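2024-03-11 09:14:02 DEBUG pipeline.ingest accepted 1 chain
2024-03-11 09:14:02 DEBUG pipeline.ingest length=725
2024-03-11 09:14:03 DEBUG pipeline.predict start
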Amino acid sequence: GPEKGLLKIYCKGADSYVKALCRGAKVGAAEIEKLQKYNKTIFENLEEFGGESLRTLVVASATKPRSWWFGDEKTGEEGWKQKYDAAVIAKGPNAKQELSKLEGEIERDAEMDMIGATAIEDKLQDGVPEAIKSLLDASIKIWVLTGDNVATAINIGISCNLLEADMTKEGRLFVFDDFDKKHKDLTPAETDSSEYKNAVRDLLESNGAYYERERLKAEEKARSEERTEAEVRDAGQAKKMRLKEETENQVKRAFIMRKKACVLDRQFDEALSKVPALRNKYQGQPLGLAMHGNVWKVVAHYKTQRATNEVLTSSMPSLQDGKSGGGVTEEVDMSIEGKFYRLAKECKSVLGCRLEPKEKAEIVKLMQRRENVPTLAIGDGNNDTVMIKTAEIGVGIRGVEGTSAVSASDYVISQFRFLTRLLLVHGRLNNRRICLLMYYIFYKTSLVVWTVLFFGFYSAFSGQFPYLDWMYQLHNIAFTALPIIIYAIFDRDIDPHTLAANPYVYPWSRGPILYGPHKLIEWAFWAFLHAVICFFIPWYAFEVTSPEKSGQSFGFQSTMLVVYCCVVIVTNQKLAFYAAHWNWAWHLVFWGSISVLFVAILVFSTSTIFAIGGIDYYFVGYRLFAMERFWMTLVLSSGLACMVDYTRAVMEHFFPDRTRVFVEARHLGKPVFDPDHVNLDDIKNYSLKDSKTPPGLNRRYTGSNFSFTPNVREAYQKKNNGIQN
């Protein structure tokens, strides 16, 4: 303990990470290999545990003098504690990066010895295999980013239906494990090559002034400690030699990275060349990819390379000023990340093993940058926090590993299997609702504004507003608000049980099908067309041809009130054509919104106190309601607008999309299946009797969230139990 002048250090983590912190790792991969031979039993046990799907950790320890951490009070030399405390309180844009770099230096300087390994069984939650299968059937690509070793991750992937058991035997699983020992270090021939020596010499020469400054600083510090002149010179030379040694190691690491990149580039080429043959041999069978974290480090190292060849060390920092250093001029293949991406795109599932938290986030960024698609990250531990924050949608699982992932997420679930309902049911339904909500809000606002613009042409743009301000303010509050709210909360084109049982329906409503510039143009066109109908029919019925026997004009206030009534009716009527289910709530708000309009007209017609801006509806409502022309105009305008929407609905009937065909097949009790993966034998053996929707469902379910839901559950239970109503 500290009272005896010694400190005991313990460390646990993944074998690939802890191995790089052990004694001898500073020198190079050759010493690490000696370490592996020294701890042969530990690494054999790790391989055995990984084959049994156990999660493994390696434990290492070291004994250091007290001065290593607290510093030497006699000589005044600082320990790691003083440097660490200064880094913790430091401020600046790179404070976190500097602290992380210092933590790595402390771990490496400890030079620990491996003392053992642990293995625990991490059981899957209930329903995980079924949930992953449903997500894969929904054409969702799943990437599992974990800290487990490759063998453990593959076994877990097979057990949870992410991978198939025959993938490895059939060659459909591409495995990129950790690099071989010959690729982790340079051979004597490579270090003796003129290329390597020239690179070291050039970098040493470019940093010569920096070495000299550091040597002088070390000598000044030694003189301040009242050392002898010989000790001062030795301190300066020792500092300079350490810097030169660091420079040589820097060049060595760059050459090793290039060596790994060349090996990985060839492996990617070989894997990509096998893909067409595997597709032809195993038609319809998915491919898989598993990679080690060290493989990703090489891919990430070259992610910023341009399309043309570049200097290898363009991103290698110089010891002098922290900027790019020169010396290594070997050209490398800049398409490593591109080849990795193309290979991963060919695979339905990807396993990333021995990944650090920041590397998980880097992979998420890769897919965001390359695919330009929304990403979802789900995790339950602190090491998943960065990944969850990086993805557009973060889902945290509340478990036994703390609440860090939950705090960083957008949604929280208690079991992984609930993700299928979150995505395939609520996700799909809300995507449909929200898309129509946005376009409908744009539509109904544009519709009423178009009528104001049309009125401007007849009023010579004098600034006269055509509607009573009370009516205009109530447009988005009372007359058209509730129907879209009810639609956006409760409307369902397919019931949740069917969506959960048929996950292949999910991608049919993604992307440009419901959302895109073409939909905005479509709704803008409907708004303009309906505005023309709602304005010009009442205008010619009341303003151009007077309904009065005297032939006098009826007045623009009364005419525009008729126009506004048409606008409100057509606006609500438009949404009715998109509602998939009519329940009591929908009937209430639809007919209620139109009724509130007429009630408001009667109220504003009772007195002149509601007059604003020269618009007065006193007795106008009573006068209009008593006229046959008023009601005929409403019927004609709304009916003509209805015919436009009805024509669109009829065209969809003759040219249906997949969702409409699926809904009609379910309603008629006919077989439903994924058209992209049709098995003719299954269709021939299909039993229409077994496929019929339960009578309770057809008769009573209306898509509501209210009292009908228990009947659906009961009907499905009867169906599953073989009970026929």
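2024-03-11 09:14:41 DEBUG pipeline.report Confidence is low (pLDDT under 50) at residues 305-334, 687-720.
2024-03-11 09:14:41 DEBUG pipeline.predict end
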